[in-house]
Amino acid sequence: PGYFNLLDDLGPLERTIEAIGASLCIVDPIGAYMQGTDTHNDSSVRTALGPLAGLASRTSCAVVAVMHLNKGTTAKVAHRVSGSSAFTNAARMCWLVGRDPDDEHRRLMLPYKFNIVERATGIAFTIEDARVLWHPEPIEIDAETVLDDDRGGRSERKAVVEWLEDCLRTAPVPVNEIKQAAEAECHSWRTVERAKKTLGVVSKREDYGKSGRFVWALPDEARADP
Fold this sequence. Notes:
This protein has helices spanning 10-20, 42-59, 77-80, 86-90, 143-167, 175-184, 189-199; strands at 24-27, 62-65, 93-100, 103-114, 122-128, 131-139, 173-174, 202-206, 213-217. It is an alpha+beta fold. Helix 1 (10-20) runs parallel beside helix 2 and helix 5 crosses helix 7 (189-199). The longest helix is centred in the last third of the chain and has 25 residues, at 143-167. The termini are far apart.
């Protein structure tokens, strides 16, 4: 028998799904089962995926298509999926799975595209003793941030953590002054906010009215005596 092909073998697949009452069908990776399809051409990809979507609708079976990222340097998910953008455009939901920037042993599953339900938060998991252990807390980090870290942002983030710790070492600093200093050092504010979380920086208000302002301070145990 030949290799399974989405263009020619959906009939047997559908009959099998119905026979066993399957509720989930995983195609991993989907490009391996599209022989004869130009995976870089939108029209060709949609021609192949349309019947698969129809199968999912008829059988009420969720179809999960797994794809890998290319070696590009952009942090945009749409530009890192191998092949045509039709793969993500045709899908109803897209998730990115990647390494947690703050924990090398943990993986994150992050929402990228949702057009049939309200957008969800991300979830985290670890693999221990050949088992997937899901973590209960929601993950708010976005998919582009994970890709940015994957292409070299980790060393930049470490440098910003050290910079912010040095800024706050002796006393609390007004947030607007931190923003000005970050701009002067060409540090993105998103990276600074992640450094704030890493250090456990406390944000608090000083005074009220026209003289009121928010300041950032290191936890008491981390701040040096003036």
